[in-house]
Amino acid sequence: MRLLLIEDDQQLQANLVEQLTKEKYSIDVASDGEDGLFQAVECAYDAAIIDVGLPKKDGISVIKAIREQKIGFPIIVLTARDHWQDKVNGLEAGADDYLTKPFHPEELAARLNALIRRAAGKASPVIENGPLRLNTATQQVYMESNLISLSGSEYKLLEYLMHHIDEVMSKTKLTEHIYDQDFDLDSNVIEVFIRRLRKKLDPNNSFQLIETLRGQGYRLRSYET
Protein backbone atom coordinates (compact mmCIF):
# COMPACT_ATOMS: atom_id res chain seq x y z
CA MET A 1 0.00 0.00 0.00
CA ARG A 2 1.25 3.46 -0.90
CA LEU A 3 0.94 6.34 1.55
CA LEU A 4 1.39 10.09 1.40
CA LEU A 5 2.89 11.67 4.52
CA ILE A 6 2.69 15.48 4.78
CA GLU A 7 4.65 16.51 7.87
CA ASP A 8 7.10 19.40 8.33
CA ASP A 9 8.74 18.08 11.50
CA GLN A 10 11.75 16.35 9.96
CA GLN A 11 12.45 14.10 12.94
CA LEU A 12 8.85 12.92 13.18
CA GLN A 13 8.74 12.50 9.42
CA ALA A 14 11.85 10.29 9.50
CA ASN A 15 10.53 8.24 12.44
CA LEU A 16 7.20 7.62 10.73
CA VAL A 17 8.82 6.66 7.44
CA GLU A 18 11.03 4.16 9.29
CA GLN A 19 8.13 2.64 11.23
CA LEU A 20 5.68 2.48 8.32
CA THR A 21 8.31 1.01 6.01
CA LYS A 22 8.69 -1.81 8.53
CA GLU A 23 4.92 -2.28 8.23
CA LYS A 24 5.49 -2.82 4.48
CA TYR A 25 3.98 0.49 3.40
CA SER A 26 5.58 2.53 0.62
CA ILE A 27 5.72 6.20 1.61
CA ASP A 28 6.02 9.45 -0.32
CA VAL A 29 6.72 12.51 1.81
CA ALA A 30 6.10 16.24 1.60
CA SER A 31 7.25 18.90 4.05
CA ASP A 32 4.73 21.64 3.21
CA GLY A 33 1.10 21.86 2.24
CA GLU A 34 1.61 23.04 -1.34
CA ASP A 35 3.92 20.16 -2.25
CA GLY A 36 1.70 17.71 -0.38
CA LEU A 37 -1.41 18.82 -2.24
CA PHE A 38 0.38 18.56 -5.58
CA GLN A 39 1.43 14.98 -4.83
CA ALA A 40 -2.04 14.06 -3.57
CA VAL A 41 -3.64 15.21 -6.82
CA GLU A 42 -0.99 13.89 -9.20
CA CYS A 43 -0.22 10.46 -7.70
CA ALA A 44 -2.18 7.37 -6.68
CA TYR A 45 -2.36 6.71 -2.93
CA ASP A 46 -4.21 4.33 -0.65
CA ALA A 47 -4.17 6.72 2.33
CA ALA A 48 -2.63 9.98 3.57
CA ILE A 49 -1.33 11.30 6.88
CA ILE A 50 -1.56 15.09 7.09
CA ASP A 51 -0.35 17.38 9.86
CA VAL A 52 -2.49 20.42 10.63
CA GLY A 53 0.32 22.94 11.14
CA LEU A 54 2.04 22.93 7.76
CA PRO A 55 3.96 25.78 6.08
CA LYS A 56 2.73 27.38 2.83
CA LYS A 57 -0.71 25.72 3.06
CA ASP A 58 -2.19 24.44 6.32
CA GLY A 59 -3.36 20.86 6.68
CA ILE A 60 -7.08 21.66 6.89
CA SER A 61 -6.91 23.55 3.59
CA VAL A 62 -5.01 20.66 2.02
CA ILE A 63 -7.68 18.18 3.10
CA LYS A 64 -10.48 20.41 1.79
CA ALA A 65 -8.69 20.79 -1.55
CA ILE A 66 -8.17 17.03 -1.84
CA ARG A 67 -11.84 16.34 -1.24
CA GLU A 68 -12.87 19.09 -3.67
CA GLN A 69 -10.91 17.16 -6.32
CA LYS A 70 -13.16 14.14 -5.56
CA ILE A 71 -10.17 12.17 -4.25
CA GLY A 72 -11.48 9.70 -1.73
CA PHE A 73 -8.52 7.92 -0.15
CA PRO A 74 -8.63 7.76 3.68
CA ILE A 75 -6.94 10.60 5.55
CA ILE A 76 -5.60 10.72 9.10
CA VAL A 77 -5.02 14.24 10.42
CA LEU A 78 -2.32 14.90 13.04
CA THR A 79 -3.10 17.55 15.65
CA ALA A 80 -1.55 19.05 18.78
CA ARG A 81 -2.89 17.64 22.04
CA ASP A 82 -4.50 20.88 23.26
CA HIS A 83 -5.97 21.97 19.93
CA TRP A 84 -9.32 20.16 20.06
CA GLN A 85 -10.81 22.46 17.42
CA ASP A 86 -8.28 21.18 14.89
CA LYS A 87 -9.72 17.68 15.31
CA VAL A 88 -13.22 18.93 14.59
CA ASN A 89 -12.06 21.05 11.65
CA GLY A 90 -10.08 18.17 10.20
CA LEU A 91 -13.00 15.77 10.32
CA GLU A 92 -15.37 18.37 8.89
CA ALA A 93 -12.90 19.07 6.08
CA GLY A 94 -12.97 15.42 5.07
CA ALA A 95 -10.46 13.55 7.24
CA ASP A 96 -11.48 10.06 8.35
CA ASP A 97 -9.60 9.90 11.64
CA TYR A 98 -7.20 11.89 13.80
CA LEU A 99 -4.28 11.36 16.15
CA THR A 100 -3.00 13.81 18.74
CA LYS A 101 0.73 14.33 19.18
CA PRO A 102 2.65 12.67 20.69
CA PHE A 103 1.43 9.23 19.66
CA HIS A 104 2.83 5.73 19.23
CA PRO A 105 3.70 4.88 15.61
CA GLU A 106 2.19 1.45 16.18
CA GLU A 107 -1.19 3.07 16.83
CA LEU A 108 -0.90 5.08 13.62
CA ALA A 109 -0.12 1.89 11.67
CA ALA A 110 -3.12 0.12 13.22
CA ARG A 111 -5.46 3.00 12.38
CA LEU A 112 -4.16 3.14 8.82
CA ASN A 113 -4.71 -0.59 8.45
CA ALA A 114 -8.30 -0.26 9.67
CA LEU A 115 -9.08 2.72 7.41
CA ILE A 116 -7.68 1.03 4.31
CA ARG A 117 -9.65 -2.15 5.08
CA ARG A 118 -12.87 -0.19 5.51
CA ALA A 119 -12.24 1.74 2.30
CA ALA A 120 -12.03 -1.62 0.51
CA GLY A 121 -15.19 -2.87 2.24
CA LYS A 122 -13.31 -5.23 4.59
CA ALA A 123 -14.35 -5.09 8.25
CA SER A 124 -11.98 -7.79 9.51
CA PRO A 125 -8.17 -7.74 9.38
CA VAL A 126 -8.39 -11.22 7.83
CA ILE A 127 -9.23 -11.15 4.11
CA GLU A 128 -10.39 -14.49 2.73
CA ASN A 129 -10.69 -15.82 -0.78
CA GLY A 130 -11.64 -19.47 -0.62
CA PRO A 131 -8.73 -21.32 1.01
CA LEU A 132 -6.50 -18.24 0.73
CA ARG A 133 -6.35 -16.10 3.88
CA LEU A 134 -4.33 -12.93 4.43
CA ASN A 135 -4.10 -11.32 7.86
CA THR A 136 -3.31 -7.62 7.46
CA ALA A 137 -2.56 -7.28 11.18
CA THR A 138 0.05 -10.05 11.41
CA GLN A 139 0.97 -9.95 7.69
CA GLN A 140 0.68 -13.72 7.47
CA VAL A 141 -0.69 -15.61 4.48
CA TYR A 142 -2.23 -19.07 4.57
CA MET A 143 -3.36 -21.38 1.79
CA GLU A 144 -5.73 -23.72 3.61
CA SER A 145 -3.72 -24.53 6.78
CA ASN A 146 -0.30 -23.95 5.23
CA LEU A 147 1.62 -20.79 6.10
CA ILE A 148 3.04 -19.28 2.90
CA SER A 149 6.41 -17.57 3.16
CA LEU A 150 6.46 -14.34 1.13
CA SER A 151 9.02 -11.61 0.68
CA GLY A 152 8.04 -8.07 1.63
CA SER A 153 7.38 -7.10 -1.99
CA GLU A 154 5.40 -10.27 -2.68
CA TYR A 155 3.26 -9.60 0.38
CA LYS A 156 2.55 -5.99 -0.62
CA LEU A 157 1.49 -7.10 -4.09
CA LEU A 158 -0.76 -9.87 -2.79
CA GLU A 159 -2.33 -7.61 -0.14
CA TYR A 160 -3.28 -5.05 -2.76
CA LEU A 161 -4.75 -7.72 -5.02
CA MET A 162 -6.68 -9.20 -2.08
CA HIS A 163 -8.21 -5.79 -1.42
CA HIS A 164 -9.40 -5.77 -5.05
CA ILE A 165 -10.51 -9.33 -5.80
CA ASP A 166 -11.90 -9.79 -9.33
CA GLU A 167 -10.75 -6.32 -10.38
CA VAL A 168 -8.41 -5.92 -13.35
CA MET A 169 -5.21 -4.21 -12.26
CA SER A 170 -2.80 -2.82 -14.83
CA LYS A 171 0.93 -3.15 -14.29
CA THR A 172 1.18 0.64 -13.94
CA LYS A 173 -1.57 0.79 -11.32
CA LEU A 174 0.00 -2.00 -9.29
CA THR A 175 3.36 -0.28 -9.42
CA GLU A 176 1.87 3.08 -8.42
CA HIS A 177 0.11 1.63 -5.37
CA ILE A 178 2.89 -0.63 -4.17
CA TYR A 179 6.06 1.40 -4.68
CA ASP A 180 7.10 4.97 -3.99
CA GLN A 181 7.38 7.69 -6.61
CA ASP A 182 11.06 7.03 -7.34
CA PHE A 183 10.38 3.49 -8.57
CA ASP A 184 11.02 2.67 -12.23
CA LEU A 185 7.56 2.21 -13.76
CA ASP A 186 9.09 0.50 -16.81
CA SER A 187 10.62 -2.26 -14.73
CA ASN A 188 9.44 -5.85 -15.25
CA VAL A 189 9.49 -6.47 -11.51
CA ILE A 190 5.69 -6.83 -11.32
CA GLU A 191 5.79 -9.75 -13.75
CA VAL A 192 8.53 -11.36 -11.67
CA PHE A 193 6.55 -11.05 -8.44
CA ILE A 194 3.36 -12.32 -10.12
CA ARG A 195 5.22 -15.44 -11.26
CA ARG A 196 6.58 -15.99 -7.75
CA LEU A 197 3.14 -15.59 -6.18
CA ARG A 198 1.63 -18.08 -8.61
CA LYS A 199 4.26 -20.68 -7.76
CA LYS A 200 3.85 -20.21 -4.02
CA LEU A 201 0.05 -19.97 -3.87
CA ASP A 202 -0.97 -22.33 -6.68
CA PRO A 203 2.08 -24.32 -7.81
CA ASN A 204 0.00 -26.68 -9.97
CA ASN A 205 -1.97 -23.79 -11.51
CA SER A 206 -5.08 -25.81 -10.74
CA PHE A 207 -7.32 -22.75 -10.41
CA GLN A 208 -5.35 -20.06 -12.27
CA LEU A 209 -5.68 -17.87 -9.20
CA ILE A 210 -3.91 -14.85 -10.71
CA GLU A 211 -4.96 -14.31 -14.30
CA THR A 212 -3.05 -12.40 -16.94
CA LEU A 213 -5.31 -10.38 -19.22
CA ARG A 214 -3.33 -9.53 -22.30
CA GLY A 215 -3.02 -5.78 -22.79
CA GLN A 216 -4.90 -5.07 -19.54
CA GLY A 217 -3.00 -6.44 -16.56
CA TYR A 218 -3.74 -8.95 -13.84
CA ARG A 219 -6.75 -10.14 -11.85
CA LEU A 220 -6.91 -12.09 -8.61
CA ARG A 221 -9.90 -14.34 -9.19
CA SER A 222 -12.56 -15.03 -6.59
CA TYR A 223 -12.93 -18.70 -5.72
CA GLU A 224 -16.67 -18.18 -6.07
CA THR A 225 -16.41 -17.56 -9.80
Automatic annotation (TrEMBL):
The keyword DNA-binding applies. This is DNA-binding response regulator. Residues 124-222 form the OmpR/PhoB-type domain. GO terms for molecular function: DNA binding. It comes from Thalassotalea eurytherma. The modification 4-aspartylphosphate is found at residue 51. Residues 124-222 bind DNA. Keywords: DNA-binding, Phosphoprotein, Transcription, Transcription regulation, Two-component regulatory system. Pfam families: Response_reg, Trans_reg_C. Coiled coil: none annotated. It comes from the Bacteria. Residues 2-116 form the Response regulatory domain. The keyword Ion transport does not apply.
